[in-house]
Design goal:
- The structure is a single chain.
- With 274 residues, the chain is α+β, with helices and mostly antiparallel strands.
- The chain has helices at residues 31-52, 240-256, 262-273; strands at 4-10, 13-19, 62-68, 78-86, 92-99, 103-105, 109-113, 118-126, 133-142, 148-157, 164-166, 193-196, 202-204, 236-238.
- It is extended.
Length: 274
């Protein structure tokens, strides 16, 4: 390292004063510290590799079956067994089971169902009418982020089934010719969100300004394209997460309607989630 030089002005003469710095001795590397750094770097690399294999989006997907052991009698409590499993990539919250014509007795809500976990509920149900009518079963659940999912199944009650799965499809047995009558309709339609290309925040699709960074998401529809603020670049992009969510819901709908075999459903779901 070069010596530091300073100058002092004494009128016409300049006095040069050299200041010598003490040179620091080269420190010897600590083997133990080097080993710790190597181990820490390996942990970081392993965690990065593990994170790379995680799906881009995490959503729950509840599959279920309902078993009826004895013929179903009216005005009597009848036992059924409901087997649920979360085959998705995210946690299922507040899974709720309900029926439109059946009274229930027993547990019909599961607070949390982890990915890969399952649970069996044994409940009692009752119908007062002796007339055989179509009964609807709804299963609702939510993702951690608050997305809502639902599955609809229908079957006939009372019935004389014995050791048989009930509520297998959205279209009840014998009503295949009227399948359109039981089509599952989405509560929401259209693009609900956009993503800000500047900061990555999600915003409702009708927002023009990003609430986080203030960038312009989209142009004003009530103004000319070549005038005023519409001349500025916009940052809104399609919400890939919401697009993925719609595909997942559509897949469940096709399964509920019996339009996909178990093999086709499993292959399509695995392809979508991966």
């Amino acid at each position: 390292m070069a010596d530091k030089v300073s100058f002092t002005d004494f009128g016409t003469k300049k006095k040069v004063r050299r200041i010598k710095r003490k040179r620091s001795k080269k420190s010897q590397p600590d083997p133990a510290q080097l080993l710790d750094e190597v181990i820490e770097a390996k942990k970081l690399a392993d965690s990065t590799i593990a994170a790379a294999s995680v799906p881009q989006f995490s959503f729950p997907f509840i599959e279920f079956s309902v078993l009826q052991s004895q013929p179903f009698k009216h005005n009597t409590w009848n036992e059924i067994e409901i087997i649920l499993s979360n085959t998705g990539t995210g946690i299922a919250k507040n899974t709720t089971i309900s029926f439109d014509r059946l009274e229930t007795r027993g547990q019909t809500i599961i607070d949390t169902l982890e990915t890969g976990d399952g649970e069996t509920l044994t409940i009692e149900v009752r119908v007062n009418s002796r007339d055989k009518e179509i009964t609807r079963m709804d299963v609702y659940y939510h993702s951690v982020e608050g997305d809502t999912f639902s599955a609809v199944r229908r079957d006939w009650f009372p019935n004389d089934y014995e050791d048989k799965n009930v509520f297998e499809n959205e279209v009840p047995p014998g009503e295949e010719a009227n399948a359109a009558k039981y089509s599952h309709r989405e509560v929401f339609s259209g693009d609900l969100h956009v993503v800000c290309g500047n900061c990555g925040s999600r915003a409702p699709s009708n927002f023009r300004i990003c609430g986080k960074c203030g960038s312009r998401l989209q142009k004003r529809a009530d103004r000319r394209e070549d005038w005023g603020s519409n001349l500025k670049d916009t940052t809104a992009t399609k919400d890939a997460r919401e697009d993925f969510l719609k595909k997942l819901r559509k897949l469940g709908e096709l399964k509920d309607r019996g339009m996909l075999s178990d093999e086709e459903f499993e292959a399509a779901k695995a392809s979508l989630l991966e």
